[in-house]
Structure formats: structure tokens, C-alpha cells
């Protein structure tokens, strides 16, 4: 049942998850690939596509409506100003690496667009950053499954507990992030 569900919807859910945020669902997909429910190369490709497409959208929205978008949420506005300061000092470095910085993942592409960063350059460097992120995090999660199996033995008997634990951790992180966001 789980295998059929993941076959039918797993990659689509991964695409949507990485389009909007990414880390938790990519870790879960990497672990599922280790358990042979998903294919690790396809996981990395889909995570790259979702992350890349989402960040491209946020970048172009930032170029067109950056200040309005950031003003909608006070936390985004503060993070946007912080992001703009980073971008002004080391623009290429931040385009390549913002995915790895907690708290700036969503707002950074908006700020990059707002900063006037060249679209063609963003297209290329964002692609490089997205593929590095998807590959590193996807394979890290995949190998985490191997480490768990080495420590716990045959994971098959713990599979539901581990998957449930990863889902609970993801849900708790999502709730914690939402609770820290001030209501506008």
C-alpha cells in the first residue's frame, strides 16, 4: 500500500514540497529511496526541478513586486533586509548557497530579485545551487538510512516507526516555524 501510494504520488509530493520549501520532504524522500520505495536519482532530479522552479518564481516575483511581498509579513520584511545586506556584499555566493541557510530559504530569492541581480546570471547560478543542494541533501538522507540500518540491524521491522518519526519531526518543524511567524 505504501509502495503504491509513493509510486502514484511520491514524486509529485516531492516536487511540491521542494517547490515551496524543501528540506524535510527531501530528507524523507532520500530515506525512502534507501528503503527502495523511490529511486535516489529520480528523487534528486525531482528535488532539483521543484527547488529550481520555486526559486525562479520567487525571484521574478521579487523583481516585479519585491517590496510589496516583503511588506506583507513583518518577519519577511526583516529577513528581506538582512538578505539584501548579504546580497550586496557577496551576491554570487548567496545565490549559490542560500538554500543551505535556515530562515532565509523563502525570502532570499525575493530579495535577490529585488536587488536587481541579473536574470540570466540568476538562472545559471540558481541552477547550480539547486543541483548541489538536491544532490547533497538527497544523498545525505539516503546514507543516513544506511547508517540507521547499520546501527539498528534490519530496518524493515522499524520502518514504520522511522517513517512515522520523520513525518512527526517534519510536522513539528513546520508547526514551530508557523508559531514563530508573527500574525499580520
TrEMBL record:
Could you tell me what this protein is called? Membrane protein DedA with SNARE-associated domain
Ranges for domain VTT come to 22-142
Q: Which organism is it from?
A: Ectopseudomonas oleovorans
Recorded GO CC terms = plasma membrane
Q: Which residues cross the membrane?
A: 12-34, 40-61, 123-145, 157-176
InterPro entries on file: DedA_domain, VTT_dom
Which lineage ranks, top first, belong to the organism behind this chain?
Answer: Bacteria, Pseudomonadati, Pseudomonadota, Gammaproteobacteria, Pseudomonadales
Q: Which UniProt keywords apply?
A: Membrane, Transmembrane, Transmembrane helix
User: What PANTHER family does its record include?
Assistant: ALKALINE PHOSPHATASE LIKE PROTEIN, INNER MEMBRANE PROTEIN YOHD
